Every structure is written in C-alpha cells, then in structure tokens.
C-alpha cells in the first residue's frame, strides 16, 4: 500500500501542476511557477522509474541540468518583460506591439 502511494504522489503532483497551468493565465510568474512544479513532478516520476528498473541515475542529473537552464531562461524572459512593459500581467500585452 505504501509503494502505491509513493508512485501516486508524483502523478497527483503532475496533474495538479497541469491544472494550475491551464487555469491560471493572468500572470507570467504564476505560469512559470506552475511549469517548474510540473518539471519537479516529472523529475520525481523519472527518478522512481529509474530506481524501479535499477538503472543509473545519470539521466536524472541531465534532466535536472536542463530544467535549471529552462528556469533561468524563463526568469530572464520575465525580467525583460517587466523592464519593457512594467508588469507581468498578460492582458496588458498587445499582439501588434513588438
């Protein structure tokens, strides 16, 4: 029963992160946080699968490296949008304004 709960937790985390990502489209920061939560849930799923199959965890370290790069890129986009537009609220952006 405990093993079932151990495997169910990352899947619940993944589903809740996807639901927050779908439902919250107002601020870029909230969107980036939900994406990072999804990446964390995927890392937990990957780690459990690799441990269950008795593989090495080298690929999980590569996954963490790429997720850190993705987070840094998202934060740099957030900072540049705040510097140019003054806010991270999506409704203030225009498609015609570049």
Automatic annotation (TrEMBL):
Core subunit of the mitochondrial membrane respiratory chain NADH dehydrogenase (Complex I) that is believed to belong to the minimal assembly required for catalysis. Complex I functions in the transfer of electrons from NADH to the respiratory chain. The immediate electron acceptor for the enzyme is believed to be ubiquinone. Core subunit of the mitochondrial membrane respiratory chain NADH dehydrogenase (Complex I) which catalyzes electron transfer from NADH through the respiratory chain, using ubiquinone as an electron acceptor. GO terms for biological process: ATP synthesis coupled electron transport. Gene3D superfamilies: 1.10.287.3510. The keyword Translocase applies. Its main location: mitochondrion. InterPro entries: NADH_UbQ_OxRdtase_chain4L/K (IPR001133), NUOK/Mnh_C1-like (IPR039428). It is a multi-pass membrane protein. It is found in: Mitochondrion inner membrane; Mitochondrion membrane. It is an enzyme of class 7 (translocase). Pfam families: Oxidored_q2. This is NADH-ubiquinone oxidoreductase chain 4L. Belongs to the complex I subunit 4L family. The gene is ND4L. It catalyses: a ubiquinone + NADH + 5 H(+)(in) = a ubiquinol + NAD(+) + 4 H(+)(out). The chain crosses the membrane at residues 30-50, 62-82. Its EC number is 7.1.1.2. GO terms for molecular function: NADH dehydrogenase (ubiquinone) activity; oxidoreductase activity, acting on NAD(P)H. The keyword Transmembrane applies.
């Amino acid at each position: 029963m405990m093993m079932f709960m151990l495997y169910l937790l990352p899947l619940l985390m993944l589903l809740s992160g996807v639901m927050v990502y779908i439902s919250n489209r107002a601020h870029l920061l909230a969107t980036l946080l939900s994406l990072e939560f999804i990446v964390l849930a995927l890392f937990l799923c990957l780690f459990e699968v690799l441990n269950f199959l008795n593989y090495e965890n080298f690929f999980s370290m590569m996954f963490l490296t790429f997720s850190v790069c993705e987070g840094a890129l998202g934060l740099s986009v957030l900072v540049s949008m705040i510097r140019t537009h003054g806010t991270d609220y999506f409704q203030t952006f225009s498609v015609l304004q570049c």
